[in-house]
Amino acid sequence: MHEPMYYLLSLLSLLDMVLCLTVIPKVLAMFWFDNKSISFSGCFLQMFIMNSFLTMESCTFMVMAYDRYVAICHPLRYPSIITDQFVARAAIFVVARNGILTMPIPILSSRLRYCAENIIKNCICTNLSVSKLSCDDITFNRLYQFVTGWTLLGSDLILIVLSYSFILRAVLRIKAEGAAAKALSTCGSHFILILFFSTVLLVLVITNLARKRIPPDVPILLNILHHLIPPALNPIVYGVR
């Protein structure tokens, strides 16, 4: 179990647990005990964790895709490239990049002037749900979240697609019987996790863009499910594997 891929899975599990513990207990407290209040500091902390850990998870998938790319396209060099030092540096990169770039989101929201009733039309403290309560102009908040989100998630997705494109090209060149299926089977679990993560996120984005045509509760429900479904299915997929 002391191999690079299992260290990456440990990091993914840690991110999933933190995301669930940040969102689900508070949502359950609302429905079970009618505890609908949250402090300003708790709200902005939840906002930071959701934004940063979500992008950290995406970045972890990208590192795992690179791991599979090296394993299949450069198998003889795999032990010298994907080392424990590489995993440690990758983990530091995942945390530092996403933590630093998402930190301004709750900071910008906390600096706004809130002069109306502080009732969030959501079950969780998303940036836009909180910022809309402000009496100030939130254009910069929206713009920063949009640019940061699509830059981080978009770049990860592009690199994942490139990795699997190279993997598929390498597999199609394998002529030995059963070798191609064996090579693809090593990527199966990882590909399923990416599919879970990307599909729920894509549906959430589409529903937010078409919010005028659908009930307002649907995006809220999908936002919560996005923090619940992938973390619940990830250990099942790799456990079966």
Automatic annotation (TrEMBL):
Keyword Secreted assigned: no
Topology relative to the lipid bilayer, per the entry, is:
Multi-pass membrane protein
Where does it localize? Membrane
Q: Name one GO molecular function term.
A: olfactory receptor activity
Keywords (A to Z) from UniProt: Membrane, Olfaction, Sensory transduction, Transducer, Transmembrane, Transmembrane helix
InterPro entries reported in the protein's UniProt record: GPCR_Rhodpsn_7TM, Olfact_rcpt, OR51/52/56-like
**PROSITE patterns tied to this protein:** G_PROTEIN_RECEP_F1_2 (PS50262)
Q: Which PANTHER family match?
A: OLFACTORY RECEPTOR 56A5 (PTHR26450:SF424), OLFACTORY RECEPTOR 56B1-RELATED (PTHR26450)
What is the official name of this protein in its record? Answer: G-protein coupled receptors family 1 profile domain-containing protein
